[in-house]
Design brief:
Helices cover about 10% and strands about 45% of the residues. By secondary structure, it is mainly beta. The protein is flat, with a radius of gyration of 47 Å.
Length: about 475
């Protein structure tokens, strides 16, 4: 950005947009701004770029445009297939479409032709690969040429440059020996398994490809032999591929110009991986114990030496041992879960032990309306009757008066006794504190694997 000759250098910023690109730069002290548009940011064709200057205190905002022609890229198309195969086999073929180094992975579809075989369009994967299987008999005997045609995309030109020559020979009658050798004959379910497949014959070294399958639907390949041998890439068959039990591995050989197809098997025993739980008693609890009415929280963690994988849920916490004759025994609750990935545990749970302090609940004395109790009411009644009958007592015989007094005094005493029983010390109920001593608890964990693998952790809490 330039100003009028002799005036101040423009300041501010510049925004560059076009073809989906948008970026802002602050002008340098010389009034300039530089932009680098990343590869694959602009679609092929004519792209108009617009630069917007923000303006400053001296110069007004301004914009300008420029047109850039962006060319598509020509990809490389590569076919991978056996150099030779017999007419009785189906033939696996893969096609890779790649751009120059640093460019994006091509998208689109690929078709494959050769002999009487014409494939349907297969979409490229996220790594730029399309896979095909040519049925047995679709390629005539002799040398056949396979041709892969790429559909092209917004960033890549259409290309049909991928070709490959394959020699198809008549089916052989020589039987090979196929050997499957696992890295171990017994593994834990969470552990990986190395496998080597060897194909041997009576004359030349067998060529072609092998496919490995296993109990439960496992499949790997087809993979090309090298020197008659193929070893699965590290780590081999991944952990947790097989459930516990006897697993049969089967290697199927495609055959070649000399050897017929064949199979070999091997058996591996798989044991369910396990885990261990442990409870940590805080030092303050283990050293002095806890008082009745207090709680103690204990972390529950996990570990595995057999590459266990899964989520372990803490399902219960049970009191399994307590002092003889203990009352108000503690209770235990649990929360949380532990996640294992190839034997590595993350997260933890908590076991919370609750004890109980002594409690007392007093019983209230019965009351009459106004707050008076039965004792006061009974005595008052007797006194009132004596006074009431005292005045006319002079007009009656002293024998009748004496009898009436005895009756009234008896009734008053009964009321007083009844009142005394209910009021006495007030009565009540109480709950004793948790008995002092050592209490042992067991935490149960249940895994999310198909076997619902279980484990326990035991801990002891002492109550003062």
């Amino acid at each position: 950005v330039a100003g009028v000759s002799g005036s101040a250098t423009p300041s501010g910023s510049v925004v560059l947009t076009g073809g989906g690109y948008n970026s802002t730069q602050t002008l340098s002290s010389a009034g300039g701004a530089s932009f680098t548009i990343p590869a694959n940011s602009l679609s092929p064709g004519a792209v108009t770029l617009t630069a917007y200057y923000s303006g400053d205190a001296t110069y007004a905002a301004q914009s300008t445009t420029a047109t850039v022609t962006v060319s598509a890229v020509t990809p490389t198309v590569t076919i991978v297939a056996p150099a030779s195969d017999n007419s009785g086999n189906s033939i696996p073929v893969s096609v890779t479409v790649a751009g120059p180094a640093g460019s994006s992975t091509p998208t689109g579809t690929v078709t494959l032709t050769g002999g009487s075989y014409n494939s349907t369009a297969a979409a490229l994967s996220s790594t730029g690969i399309a896979s095909f299987t040519i049925p047995a008999g679709d390629l005539p005997l002799g040398v056949d040429t396979l041709k892969a045609s790429y559909s092209g995309s917004t960033s890549y030109y259409t290309s049909a440059a991928g070709t490959f020559s394959i020699d198809i020979v008549s089916a052989s009658t020589v039987a090979p020996t196929v050997t499957v050798t696992p890295g171990a004959t017994s593994i834990q379910s969470g552990q990986s398994l190395a496998v080597t497949i060897a194909v041997t014959g009576s004359s030349t070294v067998p060529t072609g490809y092998v496919t490995l399958t296993g109990t439960g639907g496992y499949s790997y390949g087809p993979a090309l032999l090298s020197g008659g041998v193929y070893t699965l890439p590290t780590p081999g068959i991944p952990g947790n591929t097989f459930s516990a039990g006897s697993v049969k591995l089967t290697a199927s050989y495609s055959g070649d110009a000399v050897y017929a197809s064949g199979t070999g098997t091997s058996t591996v025993t798989v044991t369910q991986s396990s885990y261990a739980l442990s409870a940590t008693v805080p030092s303050s609890v283990s050293a002095t114990g806890i008082t009745p009415g207090a709680t103690a929280a204990l972390p529950i963690t996990g570990s595995s030496t057999t590459d266990y994988t899964g989520t372990v849920t803490l399902s219960s916490c049970t009191l399994t041992s307590s002092p003889s004759g203990a009352v108000s025994t503690p209770t235990c609750s649990i929360s949380g879960s532990i996640v294992f990935l190839a034997g590595v545990a993350s997260g933890s749970g908590t076991a919370t032990v609750t004890t109980y302090a002594a409690t007392t609940s007093a019983l209230a004395r019965p009351k009459l309306p106004g707050g008076r109790n039965w004792l006061g009411a009974g005595s008052g009644a007797v006194l009132a009757l004596l006074v009431f009958f005292g005045i006319p007592a002079r007009r009656r015989g002293w024998r009748k008066m004496l009898s009436l007094c005895v009756v009234l005094l008896t009734l008053g005493g009964m009321v007083s006794c009844s009142s005394g029983v209910n009021s006495g010390s007030g009565g009540g109920s109480s709950t004793p504190a948790t008995t002092a001593g050592a209490y042992t608890f067991t935490v149960q964990g249940t895994g999310s694997d198909t076997a619902s693998t279980q484990a326990t952790a035991t801990f002891t809490v002492t109550v003062k």
